[in-house]
Amino acid sequence: MITAKQQVIQGQALVEGVVVLLVLVALWVSAGWLFRLQDMALQASHGSRYAAFSAARGVDDQRVQATVRQRYFSGPSHQWRTLSGRQWLAAGRPEVLASSSHTPILTANAQPGMGHVASTLLRQEWSVTSDQIIQTQVSLQPRTLTNGVAPRLSRRQFILVGAGHSVDDAHVVQRVAQSALGWSGVATSSAAQGAGLASVMVPVDQGWGRPAPQFDWLAKWQGAVPQQHLTPHTGGE
Asked: I need a labelling partner for 75 at 20 to 30 A (CA). Which of 37, 55, 127, 219 fits?
């Protein structure tokens, strides 16, 4: 026979169970809401990196913004919905905004090697100016939801402009070779000494079928990068 005290305990346990169940349901709903926001924030990070490299190559903001919306916030894997099935972002993703800006020209102390004379000369010869920093930002705020307004998400990236990048391996060879301090000065001296030694050793090596020495140490690197991995830079791609 169940006493009054046991009935009170059972009733209390039932109430506690209902409360715990409600808390778990709330956590489950909140977790799904938070995970969607985190995924959108991750896409904003990816988009800001793409925007930074595109801006450094001279692609205009409108084109970058259109690409970011299409590549990182559209498609089957980027369909964020509420529990009722409503889209968090409108068609065309007008909530997603991408922009870029330039910082003032960097001082000599902010350059690689700071203001050292040799470092300054080497930067000039290799066209490593690094005189500007581009800041890009991708931001968005999902439309108003049934449970309130979602927070604004924003991600920023910074990238140096004029940091000595080359469009292909042939350009790398050309840029290295034109530097007297970084290559051609020492290479010319070494080639002269090698040519003098070769004038004596080539007749000896011919008896063994050995090839004559080559003193163009840079040209052989051209073509080392497979062509399918190279994309011509047209200023707008």
From this structure: 55
| AA letter at 36 | R
Q: Which helix (H) or strand (E) holds 145?
A: none
- In whole angstroms, give the CA distance from residue 16 to residue 10: 10
150 pLDDT above the threshold of 60: yes
The 10s digit of each residue's pLDDT in 100-142 is 988 776 676 766 667 677 777 787 777 776 667 889 999 998 8
Average pLDDT score over residue span 90-101: 90
CA distance 36 to 80: 7
Provide CB contacts within 8 A for 153, sequence distance 6+: 37, 40, 41, 44, 139, 140, 141
Mean pLDDT of the chain: 76
Which long-range contacts link 140-143 to residues 24+ away (Cβ below 8 Å)? 140/40, 140/44, 140/73, 140/89, 140/93, 140/95, 140/96, 140/97, 141/95, 142/37, 142/40, 142/80, 142/88, 142/89, 142/95, 143/88, 143/89, 143/90, 143/95
Alpha carbon 117 to its chain's center = 32
Which run of H or E residues covers position 57? Answer: none
Total H helices, total E strands in the chain: 5, 3
Q: Name the 3-class secondary structure at 40.
A: helix
Q: Is 85 left (phi over 0), alpha (psi -120 to 50) or beta?
A: left
With both helix axes pointing from N to C terminus, report the angle between 4-56 and 61-72 in degrees, rounded to the nearest 10.
140
Please answer whether residues 146 and 82 qualify as being in contact, where contact means their C-beta atoms are separated by less than 8 angstroms: yes
